[in-house]
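User: Fold this; C-alpha cells only.

Assistant: Input:
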Amino acid sequence: MNKRKILGIAALAAFAMAPAARAELGELKVAQQYGISYLPLMIMEDQGLIEKHAKAAGIGDLKVSWSKFAGGNVMNEALLSGSLQFASGGVGPLVTLWAKTRGNYDVKAVAAMNSMPLYLNTRNPDVRTVKDFTDKDKIALPAVKVSIQAVTLQMAAEKAFGEGQQYKLDRLTVTMSHPDGEVALLSGTSEVNSHFTSPPYQYRELEKPGIRTVVNSYEVLGGPATFNAVWTTSKFRNENPKLYKAFYDAFRESIDMINKDKKWAAETYLRLSRDKDSVENTLKMLNDPEIVFTTTPNNVMKYVKFMHKIGSIKVDPESWKDLFFPEVHALPGS
C-alpha cells in the first residue's frame, strides 16, 4: 500500500471519528398566557414570523408549537423540563426562575414585551383600600405568591401595613387564569369578589356598576413598569444560536407591527382571541399612553430589589442587565 493511499485512509478515519456538528432543534415550543399583553406572541404565531426568520437564517422545515398557560409558575416547570423553549409572563416568575437557576440552567430574559398598569378590582362595597380586606374576601390572580400581581400585592401590603407585613394579604389569594377570574368577579355569586388582573380584563370589569379599583401597580411602583417579558435558558441559546436569533428578530418585528398600525393590531387581537369587544374599545386601549409595547425593560429592578429584601430570591443583581441576554443591553432599561 503506497503512502498516499495510507494517508487517504487515515484522513477518512479521522473524519469518521470526529464529532458531528450539533444540529439545532427542528421544533420550537413557545408558551404564552391570556390577554392583550401577549399580542406580540399572538402575531408571531399568526404571521409565521419565527418560521420566516428561521428560513432566512438557513433553517428550513422548522416546526413551531404554541401553547397557553394560566400562569408563569407552571410555564417555568415546563421550561426546565425541556418541554418548552420560550416562556412568557410577568416579571415575578422571571425573577424567581433567574435566581433559582443561576449556575445551572441560567435562565434569562430575551427582552421585555410591554409596560402596562395592573389593577386589583373588587365588587365588595366595603373595600376602598387594601387595609379594608378581611377573611371574607378572596382575590384571584394568575399564581399565588409568584405572579407579578402577587408580588405587587405584597408591595402594596407592606406600604399599607408596614415593614414585615408584605404577606398579610397572601392568605386571601387564589390562583385563577385571567378569563376565569373575570368571570368569577362579574358573576356576583362566586366567593372570589376581587381580581388582580391585566388588560383587557381589568377595563371590562370596571364597566360593571359596583366594581372599583383598589390597587394600581403604577401607583405602587411610582411609575410605569414592565409587565411581561419572554425568557429561556442559556443552554438553549448557546446550543441554538440561529433559532434564538430567529425568535428575537421575529419578536421585535411583531412589536414594530403593533406600533406601526394599532388599528390593524386591535383587529388582529379580536380575531385571534375571539374577544367580543369592539375594535373601537380595543384601539382605545392600545392608544392609552400607559400601555406600551416595547422590548426595553422598565423599573424591573424595583421588583427585583423588593423580592430580594423579603427573601423571595437569594441573589441581589447589580443591574437589570444581569437578568437579560446581551441583545437588549444597549437599551435604556431600568
